[in-house]
C-alpha cells in the first residue's frame, strides 16, 4: 500500500516536472510581426529603394519656425526627412516628407481621397495624422503629439509646406 | 541573422539593476524617463495611436526598416551593445543568476577593481563617440546647416537624455570626481595612440571612428569630447550635481557603500548595461516615428 502510494507520488512528481520542463522550454508566443520579420529578412529585400529621393532635398520645403512654434529637424534618411514642431519647449507635432516609392500602399490610400489641401489630395489617417500626396509620389504628413494640436492645425501647417516646389522635385 | 527589433524591445527588462540605477537618476532629469518596454506598447505610447490596423502597419514598416542593413539601425544597435559589453565580463557571469534582485554591492566588493583613471577617461570619451556615431546612423544629419544639426542634438529628451545623464553621473562624476570634464580633457591631450590600442573598447569600435590612423582617431576623440564638454559642464552645474549627491540618490535604489565611489562606479560598469538598454529604446522610438510618418 505504502509502496504503491510512493510510486504514485513519484509518477505524479515526474509528470509535473515534465510539464514544467516543457512549458519552460516552449518557444515564446508568436508575435503579430513574425511574418513581416520573415519577409523582410529574405535575401535582396530592401526597405528603402536606391532610387529614392535624398532626404536632404526635402528639407527646403518644410515650413519655417514662426507663430510661436520652433521647427527642429530630427531625421534625414534616404527617402525621408522629419522635423518637430515645438511650442514653449513642448512637442506639438511631427512633420515629415517621404518618398512613397518605398511604400506603395501609402500612396494608394490617396486613391480614395475626397478632400484636398492646397490643391493636393489629402487624407486623415488614424486619430493623429493628416497627409497629402504631392506629384503622385511624395507624402507630406503631420502627426499631432499634443491634443492641443488639432486637425485644423495640421491642415494649416500642411498648407505652409512649399508643396508646389516639392511637386517640381519629381524629375 | 540578428534579432528582430520587436523581440529586442519585448525582452527589455522591466526591473533589474540597470533599471533601478537609471530610476535613481530621476532627480537629475525629473520625469524625463520612464522604462518603456514592449514593442506594441512603445508604438502606442510614441504615436498615441489606438487603431489596431494602424499599429500593425506601423510595426510592419519599423520591422522592415530595422532589417534593411543599409539604413544604419543595426549598426547603431551594435555600437550601443558593444560599448556596454566592453566592461568586465565578470559582471555578467557573476550576476547572471541574480537578475531582478537587489544585488548586494558589498558581497561583490572583493571582486571589484576600480579602473585606472586613464582607462576610465578613454571609456568615457568612447561612450561620447558612440553616442555621436549612433545618432548619425539612426537619424542621419538632420537639416541643412550645422545649426540644424546642433538643434537636433540639443533636442535630446526621454531615454536619450537619460543615457547622457547616466554617462555624466556613472562614467564621469562617480569614478573621476567633480572635475572629471577637465581631467578627462587633460588626459586625452597627453595620450599617445598606443594608449588607445591597449583599450578593449577602442579596439572593438575603432573601424567606426573617423580619423584614419590611430593618431587621427585620437584627435577625433579629443575634439569630440571637447565639443560636448561645455554641454556636460552646464548639465552638471545647472543641477548642482556632485559625486556624493549621485551616490546618495543611488543608495535609495541599490545597496552601495557611498564612501567608496570608485568601487561603486566599477560595480555599475560591471553589472549594468544602460547604453544598450536605453539605446534599444531610442532605436525603437525613432524607427516608430519614421514608420508612422511613412505608411
Total domains of chain B = 1
Corresponding CATH architecture of the largest domain in chain A: 3-Layer(aba) Sandwich
Mean pLDDT of chain A: 88
Name the poorly predicted regions of chain A.
none
Write down the overall geometry of chain A.
Answer: globular
Helix content of chain A: 25-40%
Overview of this structure, please?
The complex is a heterodimer of chains A (171) and B (295). Chain A is α+β, with helices and mostly antiparallel strands and 171 residues long. Chain A has five helices and seven strands. Chain A has two domains: 39 residues; 115 residues, Protein Transport Mog1p, Chain A. A seven-stranded antiparallel β-sheet of chain A has the order 1-2-3-7-6-5-4. In chain A, a hairpin with a 2-residue loop joins strand 2 and strand 3. In chain B, helix 10 crosses helix 15 and helix 11 runs antiparallel to helix 14. Chain B starts with a helix and ends with a helix. About 3% of the residues of chain B have low confidence. At the A-B interface, helix 2, strand 1, strand 2, strand 3 and strand 7 of A face helix 1, helix 3, helix 4, helix 9 and helix 17 of B.
Provide keyphrases for this structure.
heterodimer, A: 171 residues, alpha+beta, seven-stranded antiparallel sheet, 7 strands, globular, B: 295 residues, mainly alpha, 0% strand
TL;DR of this structure?
Chain A is of the alpha+beta class. Chain A has helices at 2-25, 34-40, 104-108, 151-160, 163-169; strands spanning 69-77, 80-87, 90-99, 115-117, 120-125, 129-134, 138-144. Chain A is globular and about 85 Å long.
